[in-house]
Design a protein that fits this description.
With 395 residues, this protein is an alpha/beta fold. It contains 14 helices and 15 strands. Strands 4-3-2-5-1-6-7-8-9 form a 9-stranded mixed sheet, with helices on both faces. A 6-stranded mixed sheet has the order 10-11-15-12-13-14, sandwiched between helices.
Amino acid sequence: MVDVLEKLDHPEKNLKVIHVAGTNGKGSVCSFMEKILRNAGYRTGLFTSPHLIRFNERIRVDGEMIPDDALLRITDELFGMEFSKELTMFDYCLAIALIWFKECGCDYVILETGLGGRLDSTNAIVNKELCVITKIGFDHMQILGDTLSEIALEKAGILKSGVPAVVGFQENEAFDAVYDYCLDNDIEADFLGIVTDGVCRREVSFFESPEDSQSELDYRQQNIALAKEAITALFPEMTEGEIQKGIDGAYWPGRLEVVSKEPFILVDAAHNTDGVKALKQYLKKEYPNERFMFVTGMLKDKDVSGMLSDIQELAHEFVTATVSDARAMKAVDIAKQLRVVGFRRYITACENADAAIKTAMSRAWSKIVVFGSIYFIAEILDVLHYDINGRKADN
């Protein structure tokens, strides 16, 4: 990507970039920050992945998806160029985004990493205003490493000396890895959360949570706190009211979102263990003492048994489906995993998302909660005729 940017005459050079890495919460934090900046009068660019319904969702200016004609024009230009190495789809996506952001005259651009951070294509960009790291957890372990420390070091690779950084609430192992990386590389960072005795050093400043411990904050509150601290790091003069207005107006589809009221259907792209823990925490808080009909489709390279084991206590029934992806775990195999982790209630295995959600809706006497692969969530939303611009399913 360094070579690509050079050949494109550095479309990023006049953009003020906020770089975001992490395992969970990246999209929400990016959405919060983008809306705050837009409300403050800045022209914003937002690059995220993957998309839910349309590819264009990945590239937005002032909240609007890149138009088809611009997307096709820039793509054709790039396909007509020769580069030193073969580009991945993600490389092309990033190049398209940067060209479009330059053409649109964006003031601030928020870039979400694709996978990891250190070797991510987005890390080729050096003119960063701020780096942000969200909650780090276990995901993409076959690429990023088997331990939380290894994964955290890959994420921390976006941090650069001389560029301010804000790091969200972390488990101790991830916290220590990122903290030590900051010390070793002369990086000044604000870490959200309580600092234990013997850890705080002068080289790194810390933001102390108003709560007694991070366990008292749910995952959404943690994401909000991180977005607020990140914006405050860039704009210390911005008022709490201005920041809160952006938080209140932000929208990130497919995350803890009620898309139908009758029957009740909530969708959440919880596709790793931390994501499922966050979903479980949310359901127990918002709907205490209830059991749910869970509809899920997962990829076989994820910790399927771990996710199912954690969420099963809230279920009275599961409907499983096979995602339309080469990495999908078969619905019957998800059902088998449910039995392995000790679930003894009803399980129905369906061929696809369409059959799964229709099966659930046909006999739902409790709230339906859909979770799993982002690709699966997209398929469910398509069946429900969901509009990505924020208008929910027909009912």
